[in-house]
Amino acid sequence: MISASRGPSARPRDAGPPIGAAWIEAPCPVLVIDRHGRLVGANEAARLLLPAAAPGDEPHTGVPPWLAEAHLRTGGLPDASAGPPAGEIGHRHFVAHPTPGAADDVVWWLVEETGRRRAEAALSRARQRSEVLAEVSSTLLSTLNAPRCMEVTASLAAEHLADAAVVVAPPQGRSHPLTFARRGGPVTRTTRSVDVAGVPGLAEALQGFPPVPARWINPDDLPSWTVPEGFTGPVGSVIVAPLPGHGVPAGALILLRSGTEQVFTEGEESFARLFAARAGAALSAARLYSEQAAITATLLRDLLPPALSDVHGVEYAGGYRAAQDHDRVGGDFYDVHPGADPGEETLVVLGDVAGKGLDAAVLTGKIRNTLHALLPLAQDHQRVLNLLNGALLSSHHKRFATLVLASVRRHGDRTRIRMTSAGHLPPLIIRTDGTVEEAPTRGTLVGALPTVTAHTVHTELGPGETCLLYTDGITEARGGPLGDDMFGEDRLRQALSECAGMPPEAVVERVRMLVAQWLGTGRHDDIAAVAISARPAGPPAGDGPAGGPPRRSA
């Protein structure tokens, strides 16, 4: 573009540039400024934008200050390092691009970028909110602890959405769990009986109804319990948003801004609802996990092997390891049912259900419960096994099991045992001289054939001798130097021969340790073992520590 040339004399104030100059018809505002910063001319668009500007005006009079300063600083030459000057004119944003004119004049083309700037600002806000939502999702979903999830929700809401936040959980009886957070302050939790009807929209939010617009809520109507301790200034604006869960509301979120802060905009209310949706989903998942974990723990209490101790002068110890390290139950099990008095037998049961994992554990629980109901018939092992066999055959389970029953009673300084195997490995007996004997009991497995055939054997344990009942997870454990050799019965016998005179806890622990070393990191079946020991000769019962039986260390 070319500016009209000027003579040596100054142009009069009311004399505009010559008609016909190209910039006059430009659709964008154009200002022509001489080398001293005085306004030489302006087109129609510029006069509409700057109605007070007139040719001949001194710098900073008719020309926007930011443009005058840039003109005097650069002389109208483009500054590649700083870029074109830009600034506000009447709440509108312009970028000025210079073009050399006649003589030393510079033609400044003002290109409006208000719309672009607003779009960039909106895009930046959207990106920030997306980052916040991503942070919310990753942080909340990283924990399945419901109280911790409420703390994180309140803390993030106070940091990104308001000056303070309150998470109101569904009622527990007549009280509501409350979590308070304020920006820069600690997060506190409490359970309190509050009147949710006193907060406009809170009762509806707790039932999952859509939120009440913030402009409908008068901050002066808020009860004192909604304001976190340490909140400065009066409440100026409030949002109450539901925390939607998986079909059931997970609670409600109250956002507070102080009176000195701006009120919530429509966009901020929408963002708060998105935040609440993410938080509600995480809270609902955490509560669902907590409920399922509580149910699982309740069920596991009946499936886990019991802790064993001395019964009627006989020492017992047990050990169990599930096939999968992350499982706590499986297909192997054991139980010890004490006799009513020292003159009655104690029934010891150890079994192995076909399979592993939770499915096998379910059948294990059924077998244990059935055997518990058959305790009055425990004197007749054959009858107990046949009744259990019938119960399994009539159930929907298609698995079978092997069992070994041992009825134990102390007689003087010796311990008498009746043992019956139903398809299970015969027990091993450790004598005081290190000899390891096999109890010659045999039988057919349970839950596969119409009847169970079994042979019962009798044996006695002298003081310090032990009988070990175990599952095939021990002898069939594969490992060793090449990783594929079975532990085998010979290695087990050798290990037991070295356990002569040890207490039952030490025997079981040594077997478990050796098998674990043999396995290394390899896969294995369920492993279970029960040791029955006759108390060695020594002080009578009651002479041990705290009036209990004397104990020995391995």
TrEMBL record:
**InterPro entries associated with the record:** Bact_Sigma-Reg, GAF, GAF-like_dom_sf, PPM-type-like_dom_sf, PPM-type_phosphatase-like_dom
Q: Which UniProt keywords apply?
A: Hydrolase
Q: Which SUPFAM superfamilies match?
A: GAF domain-like, PP2C-like
Q: Where is the GAF domain?
A: 128-293
Q: Organism classification, top ranks?
A: Bacteria, Bacillati, Actinomycetota, Actinomycetes, Kitasatosporales
Source species: Streptomyces pactum
* One Pfam family cited in the UniProt record for this chain: SpoIIE
Q: What is this protein called?
A: Serine/threonine-protein phosphatase
Q: Which residues form a coiled coil?
A: none
Q: Where is the PPM-type phosphatase domain?
A: 311-534
| Keyword Hydrolase in record | yes
Where is region (Disordered) located? 534-554
**Gene3D superfamilies linked to this entry:** 3.30.450.40, PPM-type phosphatase domain
Q: Which domain of life is it from?
A: Bacteria
The question of whether Hydrolase is a record keyword is answered with yes
